[in-house]
Design a protein that fits this description.
75 residues, alpha+beta, 4-stranded antiparallel beta sheet, 4 strands
Length: 75
């Protein structure tokens, strides 16, 4: 199974996003990114199945939760 990363920035947004995805039966794993690698303070991400990435993006857009995919793209 391929996994994709959705970066959300704050822990609050990551938890909101995880809850929204869970409501649509999309499984995600919360990850705290290494600050030194991210180049900024605390950064939280969700790891989702790549097959769910498009739907996850639609859900987050619908909830106005800001995010980026691993490539820096807003999906």
């Amino acid at each position: 199974m391929q996994r994709s990363i959705i970066t959300l920035g704050s822990q609050t947004n990551a938890l909101k996003a995880q809850k929204a995805l869970r409501e649509h039966r999309i499984r995600s794993d919360l990850i705290k990114e290494d600050s030194s690698r991210a180049g900024r303070g605390c950064v939280y991400s969700l790891r989702v199945d790549t097959r769910d990435l498009s739907l996850a993006a639609l859900i987050l857009d619908g909830r106005n939760i800001p995010y980026e995919t691993r490539g820096g793209d807003r999906f």
